[in-house]
Amino acid sequence: xxxxxxxxxxxxxxLAGFLHDIGKFAERAKINVEPQVLEDNKQRYCPYHxxxxxxxxxxxxxxxxxxxxxxxILEEHAPDLVGDNxxxxxxxxxxxxxxxxxxxxxxxxxxxxxxxxxIATADRVASGFEREAFEKYNQAEEKNHYQSRQLTLFExxxxxxxxxxxxxxxxxxxxxxxxPIQAKDCETKDDKAAQDEYLKLWEQFKTGLQDIPSSHxxxxxxxxxxxxxxxxxxxxxxxxxxxxxAKPDVSLYDHSKAVAALTVALWRYHHDRKDDAxxxxxxxxxxxxxxxxKLLLIQGDFFGIxxxxxxxxxxxxxxxxxxxxxxxxxxxxxxxxxxxxxxEALNLPSTSQIINAAGKFLIVAPHTEETKAVxxxxxxxxxxxFLANSYGQSGLGLAWQAATCDDFVFSKEKQGFKALMAELxxxxxxxxxxHFDLCSDINAPAVFExxxxxxxxxxxxxxxxxxxxxxxxxxxSELAQDQINIGTWLVKQKRLLITREPLTGLDSLTIPxxxxxxxxxxxxxxxxxxxREVDNGNIRRVFDFSSVDKEDQALWKGYAxxxxxxxxxxxxxxxxxxxxxxxxxxxxxxxxxxxxxxLNYLACEDLxxxxxxxxxLGIRALAVLKGDIDDLGLMFQSxxxxxxxxxMAALSRQVNNFFAVYLPYLCQTKYPNTYIVFAGGDDxxxxxxxxxLMLLAAELKSEFSRYVANNASxxxxxxxxxxxxxxxxxxxxxxxxxxxxxxxxxPGKNAVTCFGQTVSWVDFDRxxxxxxxxTEHLEFLRxxxxxxTGYIYGLLRLTDMxxxxxxxxxxxxxxxxxxxxxxLIAGNRGIKKTEDKKRACxxxxxxxxxxxxxxxxxxxxIALHAYLYQHREQN
Length: 875
Description:
It contains 30 helices and 21 strands. The protein is an alpha+beta fold and 875 residues long. The longest helix is centred in the middle third of the chain and has 26 residues.
């Protein structure tokens, strides 16, 4: 068989694994079915039980019967599932193949044949079932499966009891639906109402499936990647298991995705080794081979991301906005193309990739010697690319770990998948310290010969990366120009094409990524006009990264979804850049409608016009906000009582969704002057106007708490620094990292550093409110009592005194505050009576001294700095 034949066969196995539980969706929706067809399918696919000899008996797991009927319904909009060539399933031209795709998918609770047992085994492994536990599960009846809504894994982290309050609403994937809500707001005790919710979602799913371009059905690997996103959109909140007391905490999507990946790996293991199918069937049925290392977990990790994004050169500040966003997107491109290179080298479908976020990916493959040989070859491809284009400053490493089916089972005696991933992480750490394998490769160059040969003394070094040769005089390198172009294209383009050969007439990158050409395209019409390139197999992937306009808008537009675009502020109206507040901005890049705002313009966004002074108030400044989840590794390792393969994948996806799905929407709709440099996995790095970023930080923390079901043990820390817009971009990274480290040093973490002061998030939220109150009070005093800037600066000194009580002289801060305040008010001729002056003084001393300085200590500087920055007059 050709490599292409193997890939298509693997895709069919993946689809069968994906669809094995689609009957749960269909049965809960109570789709219209022929009674006789349903009865026939029960006889064929469902376990039959009798309590005693003459008992009428019953069929359990009726969803399996619905799987057969649901696949029939979807067949109209799917690639050919029957016909002349549907290997490894039965076709019209063969008689020695044991199954159809429908039979293999539907019979997982009552398996008989080799392919049925492949999927049944994958189903058990994904769930982490011990044999005895599965037998009980397979005999149990589902309870409340219409009414039950999916629990959130976040609420369970660190919790001992099982009194859970939150659920996910049964809605398509959107920025709104990824948040859990109170069970009382989404669960009903009316079966009919619950079924109607499922039916509405089922109809949306069927309609969504039709949005996949019909031409893509001829290329199953491409279509399957689209189907993955469609399936996720409409099944991310459907609970997978509700029988035998199972907690409904894993979605149908996450379980199906895990089963699909394991199905392909198990089938390919036996296929590639040419194992006897009958003997393999017996071994799987009796679990005689569950201690055999059939599976290989492959993890990829982009090393040196920060050095890659924040590399600097002489002119890097001029195009900093586009460059930073373009480099961040490029990191996502590298990991996507690296994962694709691994998958295609191993002839695996996109569904074998379980995780891809924040520069990391996880792939499940068959454990064979050929697989490991291919991985070594692919690693060399990655090394060559990074040595040629980043000169060893960054790299992408692979690590792999063999696994048995038993390794995925969790019990009191063993940690199952958790221990497996811990071992894989150790290997990945080791690979970080053996970059490019230079010590073992005797042919490794001592110097970068390509660099020396490509360096032109007349051109010099790249204008934005001083470690790369320029492509022309006073020009950036080809790589840097690609990154700058991406920063421009992200505003106007919506989709990404990954091809073997470059396409003409599109916004395209100059440098191929591991042999793939990258093109950007816009509208549906543009994306769908490449039928010929799909037919000939040139187009390997089409990704949709467009934004949504509404919070409840489904993240599905007919193509494989990748949440990698972030958010870029841009000029939305003609002549917007002529606003007087931008008067003194240095023009260092293209200024036009739909052009990204430069950092110089962004720094002006918090200026406000004061009618009294007829001047702009505020400072021209940027803020850097960097944060990440506290102790995430501990949450993954110890947070869940019984972690399984599907649960770990689900938790990783959900952590990523907050920063990759919700944060861009929040910026787009409420904080439009915020650059998302990167956001995904468990961390984020943002640039923006200083005051807007302060408010965003507070809201982001509040929303994250809501996202994790208000579980107080899950939180993040962040550091916010304010700076001038022309600072070198590498220094932005240093400032963000330093502020974050300071926040992490706070006892218990869960803190934020702002203006050099670290406070808890609770205090930060209160300080923002204090800032608003202080603004009102101080603004009143400024207008009516001629309050001087020197007085406010004096409060900073008094705050420092109060924050350092070890020095005896600092105990005088209260008396000095009272003295300075009374002097200020006493000199005001607007207040005539002595009693009024005393009353005003005491009121201000109480408000600033007791409610501000005493309560928050050094943290009160945050409120004072915010006031000073907001009211500084511009020339």
